[in-house]
Amino acid sequence: MTTQLEEKFTIEFKEEGMIIKIGEGQHLFFSPIEALMLLDILKAEEAKLKTLAAKKSPLPR
User: Of 2, 12, 24, 27, which residue has the fewest beta carbons closer than 10 angstroms?
Assistant: First the structure.
C-alpha cells in the first residue's frame, strides 16, 4: 500500500508579514505581530496537536 502526501498549502514570509496560500486566489495574511501571536498559540497547544496528528496520520506508526 502506497500513501501519497499532498501539499495543502504554502507559507511565505515577506517584510509585510506571513502569507498562507491555501489555493488559487485563497490566502491568509498575518502581520508580523499576528504571526507571532499565532506562533505562541501553536506552541501552547503543541502537545495536543501532536496527539491529534498522530491519530489522523495516514503513515504507519
Answer: 2
- Return all residues near 40 (Cβ < 8 A) that are at least 6 apart: none
- Over residues 6-49, the pLDDT tens digits come to 668 999 999 999 999 988 889 999 999 999 999 999 999 999 99
Annotated domain spans of the chain: 10-56
At residue 51 the predicted structure's pLDDT band, cuts being 50, 70 and 90, is very high
* DSSP characters over 11-50: EEEETTEEEEEEETTEEEEE-HHHHHHHHHHHHHTHHHHH
Q: Please, which contacts does 55-58 make with residues 24 or more away whose CB atoms are closer than 8 Å?
A: 58/3, 58/5
CA distance 56 to 49: 11
